[in-house]
Specification:
The protein has 199 residues and is of the alpha/beta class. The protein has helices at 4-10, 20-38, 53-68, 86-89, 120-130, 175-178; strands spanning 12-18, 44-49, 74-77, 108-116, 137-145, 157-161, 168-173, 183-188. It has a single domain, classed as Rossmann fold, CATH 3.40.50.2020. Strands 3-2-4-5-6 form a five-stranded parallel β-sheet, with helices on both faces. Strands 1-8-7 form a three-stranded antiparallel β-sheet. Helix 2 (20-38) crosses helix 3 (53-68).
Amino acid sequence: MKGAAQVAREMRDKAQIMDEEAVRRALVRIAHEIVERNQGTGDLCAVGIRTRGVPLARRLARLIGEIEGREIPCGILDITLYRDDLTTVANQPVVQRTEVPFPIVGRTVVLVDDVIYTGRTVRAALDALIDLGRPRAIQLAVLVDRGHRELPIRADFVGKNVPTSTREVVAVLLRETDGGADRVVIRELPDEGAPGGRA
């Protein structure tokens, strides 16, 4: 059976669905929607899910700061040990630090990720967040919603809805994590398929 790294190398780009400008516009719109929904920034904070949710959360915090004149606090959430597919991800999963250097109790937390798919990553993130305290509310912002939900979870703020097949992968490439220009592409799995791993 092929490993996830080998499958990733064999995937080919099928289509680009967002370029750098489209990513920028989507984040600006989401930032405005967050401010409007919450009637300002008040008790608002952002928490990005590792890996690509982190730079997206930081950008949203910066954009909200430009809109409101006050940047909201931003944290980092690692959900590795909360995943329900942990045994299929790796024999020795790499656990990174969660960094939320502010209290979330009583606050409105905007949880940020790059893509929502089955909803299982978000479920794990909710468990991880609740372990840090009890927020007043949790809202979800994603750059791409690709459908195929397996859990009753939906995003409050979506940059782009993209219908996909289960044989396709939505790859969000950001300058902070991948170098080069921001872009979102659809990739096709090789014929043999790929090991599990759900977002």
